[in-house]
Amino acid sequence: MATIDIHPHTSVEHHDEHEHHEHHGNFWTNYIFSEDHKVIAKQFLITGMAWALIGGILSVLFRLQLGFPDANLSWLKPILGGWLTPEGKIDAEFYLALVTMHGTIMVFFVLTAGLSGTFSNFLIPLQVGARDMASGFMNMLSYWFFFLSSVIMFISLFISTGPAAGGWVIYPPLSALPQAISGSGLGMTLWLVAMALFIVSSLLGSINYITTVINMRTTGMSFTKLPLTIWAFFLTAVIGILSFPVLFAAALLLIFDRSFGTSFYLSDIYIGGEALPNQGGSPILFQHLFWFLGHPEVYIVLLPALGITSEIIATNSRKPIFGYKAMVGSMLFIAILSFVVWAHHMFVTGMNPFLGSIFTLLTLIIAVPSAVKIFNYVTTMWKGNIRFTPAMLFSIGLVSFFLTGGITGIFLGNSAIDIQLHDTYFVVAHFHIVMGSASFFGMVAGIYHWFPKMFGRMMNDKLGYLHFWVTFVGVYLVFFPMHYIGIAGFPRRYYSWTNFDTFSGFADLNHLITVAAIVTLAAQFVFLFNFIYSIFRGKLAPANPWESNTLEWTTPRVPQHGNWPGEIPTVYRWPYDYSKPGAKEDYIPQHIPFSETPESNLPSENELIKLESNNGSPIVVEDKKHH
Amino acid sequence: MEKIVDLRIVEEPKRPIAMHPKKFGMWLFLASVAMLFMSLTSAYIVRQAEGNWVYFELPTLFYVTSVVIVVSSITLQLAFSAARKDRLAAVKPLLLVTTVLGLFFLVGQFYGWKQLVANSIYLVGNPSGSFLYVLTGLHALHVVSAVVFLLIVCLAAYRGKITSTNTAQMEMCTTYWHFLGGLWLYLFIFLLLYR
Q: For a disulfide at A448, which of A390, A397, A618, B59, Cβ 3.0-4.6 Å?
C-alpha cells in the first residue's frame, strides 16, 4: 500500500463566476468594439487578409513592369490613372512607391499584425485556459490603433504625390527630404504617422500577450506543459516589446529631421548646387536604429509561424513533437540572437571589417537553432501516421521554405560574399522565401487548422489542396530564379534594366517570374473564396476535428464569451501525447488526468497521479512495476 | 503478483505562479519605455563618437528639478505606504503634494530649456543640442502622462476608492512615478558624463 498524505480538499472560489452566463451585447459591442479576444482575432485576421490582397496586387503591378517592360498597361488606367505614363507604362517613381508599400504592408500589416494579432489573440487564452486576455480593453485598443494606422496607410496610397517611396527601410536622406523624391513628401509623413500608431498597437498587444501567458494560465498549466504555439507567441511578444520602441526612436528622430529642421541623419547635402543647412547628422545612425528593430522583426514575423507549424505537424503526424525542450530552447536562443546580428544588414556601410566578422559569426550561429528546428520537424514526421490536411501541407511547405531560404542566409551572413550579393535579387530571393513565404505559409496553415474553432465550420479540403499546390510551386517559380538573377548582379529596386545589355539575357527568367507571380496571386482567390464560402456554408465542424490535444478543442463548437461554459479545464499533461503506446485512442488531450489512462502511463506518470485530485472516490491503479 | 495501489486526494495540481495582470502589464510597459530611452542614448553615444559635436552646459535648473523629482518620489511612496496601512487621512495631502511637485518639475524643465536657449543651444543645429531637447522633451512628455495618472489616483482617493485592500491602481502609479524619477536621474547623469 502506498502511503498517502491527505490534504483537505479546499474548494477554490471562482472569482470569475459572473462571467459564466452568456453575454448579450448589441451589434456594436459584440462585433465592432468587442473586448472578446476571439472577435478581436477575427478582426485582425480579416484586416490582415485585406492588406495581403492589396500587398499582393501591388507586387504583381511592379512585376508586370519588370517582366514585360515594353507592355502597354493602359488597360489599368481606371485603377492607376495618372501613375501611368502616356505610353502606358508605370511611372518610374510610382514603381518605387509600389515596392515600398508592398514591403511595408507585407512585413508589418500582414505578417506582424495579421499573423501575431490573429493567432496570439485567438490561441493564447484558448490554449492556456483563460477566459480572455489580461486586459480586454487594451486588446480592443490594440486593434483600433492598428485599424487607424491601416486607414492612414491606405489613404497614403491615393494622395497626389504618391505614398512613401524610399523603400520599406526608409533610409534617410532619401526619406527625409521631400526634394529627393515625391513620395518623401506627404506620403512619407503619413507613413511615419501610420507606423507610430502601428507601434502603439503592437506594444499594447505584446504587453497583453506576455501578461496573459505568465499570469492567466489554468491550474496545472506549467511552462513545460505549454503548447509550442504559446511559447512562440510569448517570445515573439518579448521581442516586440524590446525592439519596437527602438523603431519608434528611429522614426521620432526622422520626424524631427523632416518637420522641425534638426540634423540627426542629415549632413553635407547639396541640392541643385546649393547646400542644405543641415550639418552634423549621420545617415548610418538611422540604419543602426532601424535594423536593431528590423532584424528582430524578422523573427517577430517568423516565430509565430514556427509555433503554429509545430502544433500542426505534431497533430497531423499523430506523434509527439520531437525534442520539445530543444524546440523551446532554440526559439529562446533565436530570440536572444536576433538582437545581436543587426549589422549584417549593413556590411557595405563602411563598417570596420573586424566588426563585420563578429556580426558574421553571430549571424551564422543562428543557423544552429534553426537547423535544430528543421531537424525536429522532420523527425516529428518520421514514421508518423501523417494526415495530409491542407494545414499540414502548408506546414510542410513552411519547413521546405525555411530550409531553402535559410541556406542562402548562410551565404548572405558572410560579410565577404555579402559585399558581392548586397542589394541584388539574391537578397530578395532569400528573404522572400525564408521570411515572407515561410511566415505566409505558417499563417495560412494556421487559418486552415483553426478555422473550425474560429467559425464553427470546416473549410473545403479539395480547394485547400489546389491552393497549396499552386502556391507552393508558384512561390518556388517566383523566387528560385531570383537567385540566379541576383548572382548575375541584378540590383533590386531598379525600375528597368533594358538599358543594360548585360542583363538582357535574363529577360526570359523575368517573364517566368512575373507569370508565376500572377498565377500564385490568382490561387489566393481560391483560398479567399473557400474562406468566405466556408464561413457561411461550410460543413459544420465537430468539436475536435483534428483530434488534437490542446485546450481550445475542449470548448463548444463556437465558444462564447468566456470560452468555456463551465469551469476551465485543469491541465495534467503536456500537449503532445499522440499515439501513446497502450492508449485507447491515438491522442490524449491535456485535460485528461493520468488516473484515467492507466493503460498508457509511464511509471513516472503513475507517480504523478498522486498529485491529481479525484473528488473523493478512490482510484485503483495497477502498479505495472511488479507483475 | 498484482499490487493494488489505493490513492486518494493528496494535492491539487499546482496553480501557476501569477501576479496581478495589470501590475505586470505596467512593468512590461516600463520595459518598452526603457528600451526607447536606451536606444536614444545609444544613438547619442554612437553619434558623439563620430565627431563634430558641440559641447553644452546643462542648465543649473536641472539640478533643482532632479531634487524635486526625488522628493516627489518620496512623498508618493509615503502616500502609498499610508494607503496600505489604511491611514487614509494622510493619503490625500501626500498625493496632492506629489502632483504639485510633478508640475513643478515640468515647469522647471521648461525654464531649463529657456536657460539652454539663453546659452545658444537650440533644437535645430548641431545634433548635440537636438538630442538634449529630444531626450528631455520625451521624458517630460512621459511625466505629463504620469501627472495625469496621479490626478486620476487623486480623484480616486477623494472618492474614497483607495483603501488598504484596494491599492493596485495606486501601486501602478507609484511604480510608474518612481520609474520616471529613476529615468530622469539616469538621463541627467548620462548627460553630465557625455557632453
A: A390
Residue B18 and residue A627: Cα distance in Å, rounded? Answer: 43
Separation between Cα atoms, residue A443 and residue A122, nearest integer Å: 13
Q: Residues A109-127, buried b or exposed e (16+ Cβ, 10 A)? A: bbbbbbbbbbbbbbbbbbb
- Partner B, chain A 245-274, Cβ-Cβ below 8 Å: 245-246, 248-250, 252-253, 256, 260-264
Instruction: Give the DSSP H or E segment for A334.
Output: helix A324-337
DSSP characters over A553-567: GGS-SS--TTS-SSS
What distance in Å separates the CA atoms of residue A42 and residue A70, rounded to the nearest whole number? 42
Outline where A68-135 has alpha helix (H).
77-80, 92-104, 118-128
How do the pLDDT tens digits run along chain B, 195 residues long?
A: 444 544 444 445 667 777 788 899 999 999 999 999 999 999 999 999 888 888 888 999 999 999 999 999 999 999 999 999 988 889 999 999 999 999 999 999 999 999 999 988 899 989 999 999 999 999 999 999 999 999 999 999 989 888 888 889 999 999 999 999 999 999 999 999 988
**Cα distance between residue B171 and residue B77, in whole Å:** 9
Residue A109 DSSP one-character state: I
With contact defined as beta carbons under 8 Å apart, do A128 and A213 qualify?
Answer: yes
Q: Is residue A138 a contact partner of residue A208, using CB atoms and an 8 Å limit?
A: yes
Query: Residue A564 burial (CB < 10 Å; 0-12/13-18/19+)?
Result: buried
Q: Cα distance from A132 to chain B (closest Cα, Å)?
A: 12
pLDDT at residue B12 in the model: 56
Cis preceding linkage at A593, omega within 30? no
Domains of chain B, by residue range, sit at 57-193
B87 vs chain A: nearest CA distance in angstroms? 28
Pair A626, B1: CB distance under 8 Å: yes
Q: Does A17 touch chain B (CB under 8 A)?
A: no
**CB–CB of A279 and B130 under 8 A?**
no
Q: Which residue has the cell 503554429?
A: A308
ipTM of this complex? 0.89
Q: What is the pLDDT of residue B2?
A: 47
| Burial class of residue B146, CB neighbours in 10 A (0-12, 13-18, 19+) | buried
Q: Which residues of chain A have pLDDT under 50?
A: 1-22, 615-627
Q: Where would I find the H helices in A68-185?
A: 77-80, 92-104, 118-128, 136-156
In chain A, domain spans? 33-537
Phi, psi of A16 (to 5 degrees): -105, 25
Mind listing the pLDDT tens digit for each residue in A424-440?
A: 999 999 999 999 999 99
Instruction: List CB contacts (< 8 A) between B39 and chain A.
Output: 245-246, 249-250, 289, 292
CA distances to A191, A251, A344, B46 from A287, in Å: 17, 11, 11, 12
Query: Residue A48: what residue type?
Result: G
For residues A201 and A250, is the Cβ–Cβ distance under 8 A? Answer: no
Per-residue pLDDT, A247: 95
| Residue in B2, B6, B8 to test binding to A, most A beta-carbons within 10 Å | B8
- So what CATH class is A33-537? mainly alpha
Answer yes or no: are the C-beta atoms of B134 and A253 closer than 8 Å. yes
Q: Check: CATH 1.20.120.80 for B57-193?
A: yes
**Three cell numbers at A269?**
547635402
